[in-house]
Amino acid sequence: MPDPFEPRIVAFFCNWCTYLAADLAGTSRLKYAPNVRVVRLMCSGRVDPQFVLNAFARGADGVLIGGCHPGDCHYQEGNYKALRRFHLLKRLLREMGIEEERIRLEWISASEGDKVRSVINDMVEKVRALGPFTARVTEDRVLEEVTA
Amino acid sequence: MSPRDESAGSVRVGVYVCHCGTNIAGTIDVRSVAEYAATLPGVALAREYKYMCSDPGQELIRQDIGEHHLDRIVVAACSPCLHEKTFRHATEQGGLNPYYFHMVNVREHDSWVHVDKKAATEKAKDLIRAAVRRVRLHRPLERRQVPIKPDVLVVGGGIAGIHAALTLASAGKHVYLVEREPTIGGHMAQFDKTFPTLDCAACILTPKMTAVKMHPNITLWTLSEVSRVEGYVGNYTVTVKRKPRYVLEDLCVGCLECIEACVYKQAKVSDEFNLGLSKRKPIYISFPQAVPQVVVIDPETCIEFKSGKCKKTCVEICADRNAIDFHQQEEVKTIEVGTIILGTGFEVFDARRIPYYGYGVYPNVYTAMEVERLVNASGPTGGEIVLRDGRKPNSVGIIHCVGSRDEHTNRYCSRVCCMYSLKLAHLIKERTEAEVYNFYIDMRTAGKGFEEFYNRVAGEGTHLIRGKVADVCPGANGDGRLMVQVEDTLLGMVRKIPVDMVVLATGLEAQKDAQEVRRLFNIGCSSEGFFLERHPKLAPVNTFTDGIFLAGCCQGPKDIPDTVAQAGAAAAESLALIDAGAVELEPNTAHILEEVCSGCKTCIPLCPYQAISFVPDKSKAEINEVLCKGCGTCVAACPSGSIEQNLFEDQEIFEEIEGLLTYA
Amino acid sequence: MSDKPKVAFYWCASCGGCEETVVDLEEKLLDVVAAVDIVYWPVALDFKRHELETMPDGSIVATFLNGAIRTTEQEEMAQLLRKKSQLLFAFGSCSHLGGIPGLANLWDRERILPTVYRESPSTPNPEGTVPRRVSKVNGDALSLPGLFDTVRTLDQVVDVDYYVPGCPPTPKILLAALDALLNGKLPEKGTVLAPDQALCEECPRKESRPEQLSLAEVKRPHQVLIDETTCLLAQGVLCLGPATRAGCEALCVKGNMPCTGCFGPTSRVKDFGGKALSAMASVAGGKDEAEIARAFENIPDSVGTFYRYSLPSSLLRRKRLEAGR
User: Fold this and answer.
1) B597 interfaces chain C, CB cutoff of 8 Å
2) What is the ipTM of this complex?
């Protein structure tokens, strides 16, 4: 009997807000699903859409981006750029057949440890319901014998 | 730009998995994680150890680098926000560049937040695998030193700002003290007696205020506000707007004759300092001991400003000094400071937000601050506690926790209200011999001398009733008294107590403009709106922005002793930076790959610090490393991949992502 | 048999434009023909497959292969030519990045074949015939190449030595490649034979792009009366020049149209579309959802805009089909 599907979610957290909020969730011993792997960046503005695409291409089932609330970016405006890129990226991903729930942008400030918990739990459940992400172009799929 | 180790394929990585006692080891199978790490490509050795941050733990790293010829170090332990510096230092001491180190968070992000031990262990393995792949691409980076400018800006002239400024000035540093009211002193100047000793606030405050005025190292700017802050730790450029007082500070001697002489024979303007309980004239001084001892003209109410046709008796009477100048303009000053201390204080909770206590509806419902002014000898009633109609009250009810400890308003406890309510109970009893009732939920008297004070007040016959007041309404028999309805939880019954006067112990809140102010200084706020400290226990006066410190109630409600202690702490932090002379900047800055930059100018407008400029001669972009803060926004934006960020290069992040997802 | 180096040209899923480039060498073509021995070029010369098969392995010095790989025959030919050639050049956007045919990666066989053969209004096909791998005609078995669901770039099928980018590559680029080949001046294996900088470097309108560009709205070319001397992005038209490799001398821009990215990314970029959209997001859009949505309203087709030539070479390679397929 195969193991039940456990989503693998890659998260890009900004150092000053979301990463600290996740630390706070830790010091407060809040509990949440173990499916997320965090990549620490200085600012959500550093999130290059290529990172998100690479994560999916390598087998992530979902990608979460965490940054400071609009107006509160430690570097003033990085999160606005992240928001714009996210908008275009989401549209692109939708056209590529990737469901909206797999890519998520959340504004989480340093004191919102509980939000980290609830966002992660929520996203894990939503992605679990969607099932594994299989746009990995496996070699055998491509070479599949064609029967027109 | 420092070259990448050409032998990135053959680097030797040392991996250390920390137990952190049982904090990590209790949930994560550290042994199997270390064993797994040893199997990863490039890992020369993997160890587990009880406390990596301890001296022996760090010594392990130092020794292993030498003995095992390690080129990179990975430590899986707590958050990098805690110990990244510690381990970078250990790496450096072992003889490697400190940036050949990468930290993995398996505590705050793993063992502390997951219950499934197997999943937590697998997660730790994934994270370490990613770190090992990433660290192999790290380059040897150098930290840059920048000098610290010695001057300090203190924002806010309350007791916090005053104490910080005096401490720094005594240490020989030049301080700019900027205050937006016409006088320094803050809320403390409005108090009468302070708990638990009942010293007179003015008596202990005014000498400090005078010391500020007299100190040669302090530049005092009142009626002034910071409008712009640029730069970074050690090098802040601050713009201060000085509003016109219409009275020349250097010439006014504070005789106050102009106030007497004003064409307004009666004061008609609501006096802000007395919270509207009395009136002032358009030309006024906040309180007699104001510093600077200079009057101020309010352009909103002065006839000369409104019509241009005043007799200007004030100018007449000041003929020998000629201190009044109706044409004074706003001044904009720019200063260069190395550090900034924020002591912008608090605001009192607006009692109108709790309508069932009747503030603003029933005339004899007062806020505690208003009663402070009544009690104060230089207040609107000369120290007499009287009702609106001038009679002395026979009975007074003091309601604790107004606006505090309440889901509907503020959840937190405002810390000072129990003590000041007991103080007011004592003073009211003293002045009026009225029956005093204190309605409290819990009695919080935790400071030095506080419990003794509580016993004293209790011993004086104050009625202490444990219950949250449900309602304040006019008494049924129409005699002007107010009925306080409360469940006395110690007696176990609902009581209706008639009183002449109700005093609301309103809590402390962040200033209304706290959000604008904190954006101005690029610091954070907590969910209650107070400025956010870097660490509640270990760095209560630091912020996440280097060089900017907090003191007093702007960081959270506290009393005067704690405020003064924090102000001293903030001054000490400032001094530590200034006397060190220089600060090292993190090297995670971005740089343009000049050879391949096409000069498309996409990056130019993206930097809020104006670190990127276009060089027309070369037709390429250029980044000023000193101004760059390392956010990486331009790096992500560059369409041809021609900007790189130290420590966060594209390749390093791609490796990290792949390491997380692909099983080596 | 001559001693001149043997060269081959082949086309896979392509439009023939790359062949045109060879023809567009004009009189220089004579120099080329004089310097090399073309041993295989189906579109122009009558060589058969079995002749190619009998050539010794590695006897062809260089094969220029254009077109993407989407049929079994193309895959076989790519593998065959790889075996027979010392150097394999991916010639043109299709073999380099997937090209326009790469957009088929938004679909699969099951959707494409019926659309083309049955549902297309301009294709008369009353019997609803759809091509089959093997069919019997008059007792004989007739076979056709199989069609893959996914279009691939050449390097996803065989090892590629060099790339000559463009849709099509300009004659200049091709000549430079041939020149490097014939004079032993080829760079490191795997190099794209065009400058490793963005197009803005050679764009005649570069000076006119303001340093502080912030658009409230991005427009499509037909929505703007495009001025012939000003930077297209500055006029609000989405030009992918900043994200696209230089080398074409900004031909499209000189034709008063925006660059659509056919030369692909620089070597420092992994996914052209991702980077291009990141760059566009940096020049347009406001600070809230509504402003941002308005700014990019006029991009009706994200994949067609950002991955027009490069979908198969992108990180995701193709659109994800429904689960179960």
Assistant:
1) yes
2) 0.93
